[in-house]
Amino acid sequence: MLKLNSSRLIIFMLVALNVSCTIRKHPFNFTKNIDSAFLQSVLQGSKSVLATEKNATSARIYKAGFLQGWMEQDHFVDWAVLSKQRKNEFTSFNRGGKSEYDVYLILFETKNGGKNSFLLFTVQRPWSDTDTATGFSPFYYGILESRASGAYLLADETFKIAAKHATYTPTNRRSNKLYFLLDKQYGSAFKSDSLRIEKVVLAQDNQLSDNKALVISVDEVLGDKVSLIMRYEDTIILKP
What's the predicted TM-score (pTM) here? Predict the structure, then answer.
């Protein structure tokens, strides 16, 4: 059966909602902490059966942003988490923010025509503070695959990160099976300028569909059709 915390994870993992009463701040900067050494440790320590390539030469970085602010909806003003591409929907009530969320997708370029592996995770941080994190989603690792129905990210490993002296290392690796289906309207190839997750498929027993795969629509959960458009930002060289 799908546990309650797992259900919350599937629905909210892409905006990394922090439900803890005490918010802990961590010094975090993507460029400094998610560097070549960190990504190499992800590859070398992985137990993934699918993503067997250990000798990736580079990593392509994609990013989508969300922010939390006041929004007028159904005659009420309340906190809402929206894609930064929907800033125009924030009303005049918005005088500041609460949190921002950066969703990162990293595609590893493989040698000799091997499968391209990926890393997907979300960082929650205070409003306009790019060097601090208040939460991390699980880190999902697997392969970029494509079939007749379209391209998708298949994650068979999940891990957390441990921080020590501003150095982050992967820890608590676990096996799982999650599909992140990519929207055909945007890029779906390895070197696309943009990628967008359209649906999340949980391929395990759950409370709603017994032993059938549970499909979560990003459009329905986040309430719009422009969320999770991840734009290419940069490439990190792992090996010369």
Answer: 0.84
